[in-house]
Amino acid sequence: MRYVALNQGMDNLSRFGDFIPAGKDFGTRPEPTAYFFKRYSDEQLYALAQYVYCLKPPANPHPFDDQAARGKQVFMTNGCARCHEPGKDYSSDKLVAATDFKVSPGHPEMARVMSSRVNTDSTLTLSTRRGTGFYKVPSLKSVWLRGPVEHNGSVASLEDWFDPRRIEDDYIPTFQPHGKGHRIQRLARSRGICLGYD
User: Fold this and answer.
1) Preceding omega of 173 cis (within 30 degrees of 0)
2) Is residue 28 in a domain?
3) Is residue 114 part of a domain?
């Protein structure tokens, strides 16, 4: 919550090329108001954190059926568990370096950096104010409840994520938050797994 306090209101100043997340039609910077840079007190943020911690997620409505068992087999045989470890809420707490990021040998997080990369688009982590050059391996626990998905929120849902049409050259994503979407990269298609995008 302290991180929220430090960053609150800063999204009003964010700009990524012609894309302004807080802007009107994502293109015009909002006018400053009295609440433009309002910050919550430590007491308010502590109370909010306590509230969030007491919330209970809804039960998963999807049964573990034959289709789920087949999905588990695909997950385990294609190396997904290397990053999304079942015993750690389907994460690993590891960092994946962006494709174009050179990690120095003395980096303070070196022990958490995975040796492999997954060809994820590096724009957000290399071209934005909060970029570090890394993406953290996300938890897949309750991912059915969250959305949009993908490191930049460019896929609306798991149904879209696993849509077989995404491997086609003429695929048009159902969700395009930045005015464009992407299809699965040819390398991923050749391996039969989802490694990244172009």
Assistant:
1) no
2) yes
3) yes
**5 Cβ partners below 8 Å, 6+ apart?**
39, 40, 42, 45
Tokens 């807080």, located at residue: 22
User: What is the rounded (10 degree) CA torsion for 79, 148, 123, 110?
Assistant: -50
Domain span including residue 163: 147-198
* First vs last C-alpha separation in the chain: 34
Reported confidence tier of residue 183, pLDDT bands at 50, 70, 90: low
Q: Examine residue 59 and state whether it is found in any structural domain, yes or no.
A: no
Residue 180: inside a domain, yes or no? yes
**Per-residue pLDDT tens digits for 15-53:** 777 777 777 777 787 776 655 556 778 888 889 889 989
pTM of the complete model beyond 0.70: no
Please count the structural domains in the chain.
3
> Is residue 73 pLDDT above 90, yes or no?
yes
**Contact by Cβ (8 Å): 168, 185:** no
Q: Which of 115, 139, 163 is at the close of a domain?
A: 139
CA 71 to centroid of chain Cα atoms = 21
Element (H, E) at 140: none
